[in-house]
Amino acid sequence: MNRKVCIVGVGHTNFNSMTPDVSWKEFMYDACKKAYFDAGINPRKDVDSFITCAEDYWEGFGIFDEFVPDQIGATLRPCCTVCGDGIQGMANAYMQIMTGLMDTVAVEAHSKVSDLLTYGDVVLHAMDPLFEKPVSGPVERERYAGSPSYPDNNPKPLVGSTDEKERVHPYFLAGLEMQHYLRSAKVTEEQCASVAVKNKKNAFLNPYAINQADLSSEDVMSSEYLFNPLKRLDISPLVDGAICFVLAEESVAKKLGIEPIYLNGFGYSSETPWLSTRGMDAGYARQAVNMATKMAKLKDPKKALDVVEVDDRFSYKELQHIEALGLAGPGEAAQLLEEGELYKDGSLPTNLSGGSMGVGNCLEATGLQRSLEIITQLRGLAGKRQVTDAETGLAQSWRGIPSGTGAVAIFSRNPEVKT
Amino acid sequence: MSEERIEGQPKYAPGTHVRSKDIRERKITYTWWEPEAQYAFSLGPANSRFLKELKAGKIIGRTCRKCDRVIVPPRMFCDWCYDTTHEWVYLKDTGTVETFSISYLDPDAHLIEDPILVGVISIDGASPKHGFMHYFGEMKPEDLRIGMKVKAVWKPKEERVGSVTDIKYFKPLIGGDE
């Protein structure tokens, strides 16, 4: 058995802070239709199996699995949901193809977070009910305009309002972790701020990134503390976006006449949910990259990788993740950034898509958004942000607060990664 | 905990019964949390138009020319051919009962005196088996049957808000009613 899995089609919607013009079904349809067009296939005949990455609380439906077939082309076809990030969905697609049962598998992930009025409360709901929820306050609680229990004419900011329930916004967990990271890596808040500056600037060159800004690190530093040491501009904004990939066995790509991008390796890992005892050093990323590099037979990732996308939902996360991935020594990622190595012409171009800072936090679609950038780079279609002769790239994602789950995918233009 | 045997329980099922009183009195250890999850789903063009037309007292669908299909409630894409749908088309407010159930219990499992008649109605003018769920009224439970012709009974215009309940229920269609 010498099957190889590659990406033969990608599609995505526009990304936006709100998408009131379409339902979530039409939104998903938009991304999938484009992916099938890109691959030149008819999903009703040519796709053997369909995977959506979704979590019921994000969606607002119980058993969301049952609501997906129509809009992804899967009515009366093999279809399932992976409750996790898009890269985990892609890993499942890979395994389905490797069994030989399926030759072509579609993977879709999306965020329609603008439909969710109580984002902070839903994240808080993901915390342990006995040990963590009771000590998650009392401070602010968010209320959005349009929420039935909140008057339309008096919208309050994301954080900073209080009401009788006195729950805290769970992003304080990122504040805890950042505090720990600053100390252990001997990194300054200014250095973390530079990540936000870089990625929001990168977003200018990515047509689908909407959170571009020309900031200085002073701008980030002078934004208000929300979860000290985390400031407003250290936090990526939420966006809506849907992405679909078509994965296929190599022979299908050849039949379609498509120049494939190979999925050479992947990995995913979950930390214990005990916030108080789990590591604060993104151990999930370390485990995931070990699995992925072993699978891709990648001995020296630092040398082989031409372009990298890592999770930066909070500015410090980019630095922490680069170190956890072994692409920099402990505490050295900030130095790489200062020396310009994480920019387009550096030795480790990181988050040229703009990342979560520049594109936005698209929940479970984050891993696919990162992978989309790598695939676009490897296809040579990244326009002004194109890395010359990019052959191998890595995408890494994290499921966000309060999860300790992360995934890594390694792509290249070759069936075997060139080292 | 209450350790008495409940009358009528079989002898082979001994054990300790848990009453709601035991929970109230905290004899059971538990922790409590009420999630605060609220959503406002954007409806998109198809469902927005559908609700707007219901408010006006009309039922509207979408056609898929490829599949020769008239879909109601309308959708912007067809799940059979996976292409976009084509045109808006007004449909009658009459239809056929596809299936039904007579419900005697409310969600808390209390007996309802007047049973709720609910079922699926295929709307006239749409493709076969295309329609939606609704209540039935102006009929006895024993009169309800599959294949029965029914007609929508609308709320008065000023009470309609753009909701599927702008139709109160479907009643038997009697000759000349159309």
Attribute tags:
heterodimer, A: 419 residues, alpha/beta, Peroxisomal Thiolase, Chain A, domain 1, two-stranded antiparallel ribbon, 11 strands, globular, B: 178 residues, OB fold (Dihydrolipoamide Acetyltransferase, E2P), three-stranded antiparallel sheet, 2 helices, 8 strands
Explain what the structure shows.
The complex is a heterodimer of chains A (419) and B (178). With 419 residues, chain A is of the alpha/beta class. Chain A folds into 2 domains: 5-114 and 238-412, Peroxisomal Thiolase, Chain A, domain 1 (3-Layer(aba) Sandwich), CATH 3.40.47.10; 128-169, no CATH class. Chain A has helices at residues 24-39, 43-46, 56-59, 69-72, 86-98, 119-125, 172-185, 189-202, 217-221, 250-256, 283-295, 301-304, 315-324, 333-338, 355-358, 366-379; strands at residues 5-12, 49-53, 79-82, 104-111, 225-227, 230-231, 241-249, 261-270, 307-309, 392-398, 405-412. A 9-stranded mixed β-sheet of chain A has the order 3-2-4-7-1-8-11-10-9. Chain A has a two-stranded antiparallel ribbon with strand order 5-6. In chain A, helix 5 crosses helix 16 (366-379) and helix 8 (189-202) packs across helix 13. The longest helix of chain A is centred in the N-terminal third of the chain and has 16 residues, at 24-39. The model of chain A is unreliable at 138-164 (pLDDT under 50). The termini of chain B are far apart. Chain B has helices at 20-24, 44-55; strands at residues 59-64, 69-71, 87-91, 94-105, 111-123, 131-135, 149-154, 167-172. Chain B is extended and about 65 Å long. By secondary structure, chain B is mainly β. Chain B has a single domain (44-172), classed as Nucleic acid-binding proteins (OB fold (Dihydrolipoamide Acetyltransferase, E2P), Beta Barrel). In chain B, the strands form 2 sheets. Chain B has a 5-stranded antiparallel β-sheet, with no helix packed on it. The model of chain B has no long low-confidence stretch (mean pLDDT 90). The chains are: A alpha/beta (419), B mainly beta (178). The A-B interface holds A 19-26, 29, 33, 36, 42-44, 57, 60, 69-71, 73, 75, 112, 114-118, 121-122, 125, 129-130, 133-134, 146-149, 165, 167 and B 31-33, 35-47, 75-77, 79-82.
